[in-house]
Amino acid sequence: MQARLDAQKVSPAAYQALLGMGMFVRKQSKLEPALIELVKIRASQINGCAFCIDMHTKDARAEGESEQRIYALSAWEETPFFTDRERTALALTEAITLVREGHVPDEVYEKGRKSFSEEELVNLTLAIITINGWNRLAITFRYVPGEYQPGKK
């Protein structure tokens, strides 16, 4: 597999704008880093983005996430490995990522309101939007998975 183009080189300002959204989520959103990585992995699984799955499973491991939880993420509803807050974030991730299949159902949104403050809910939604943007960029331009290492972004 070969990448079609390097978006960072072709349009650095656009690339930086998407990076800026990610930096906000990581540094200013006050969401737990582990939760953010779970969201990134789950959205990337749904979208079939091998590059982002590779990147964010490595990042999650580097931050101490267990192999068991990473492996079970695609079947999170059937496991006891995730907290209620994480389960709510994953349900929101699926609903927002698959928005065309039923928008964001009221019951999913209401669980979000109970598990997250309004600010956290906005920031979680931004995290989900951001990873979906990265997935679409990586898939469109065929970013090649495998070479990424944590700490070398």
TrEMBL record:
* Annotated InterPro entries: AhpD-like, AhpD_core, CMD-like
Which branch of life, at top level? Bacteria
- Carboxymuconolactone decarboxylase-like domain location, by residue? 12-94
What's one Pfam family here? CMD
Gene3D superfamilies assigned to the protein according to its UniProt record, in alphabetical order: AhpD-like (1.20.1290.10)
Q: What SUPFAM superfamilies does the database record attribute to this sequence? A: AhpD-like
* A Gene Ontology molecular function term of the record: peroxiredoxin activity
| Protein name, per record | AhpD family alkylhydroperoxidase
What's the source species for this entry?
Tunturiibacter gelidiferens
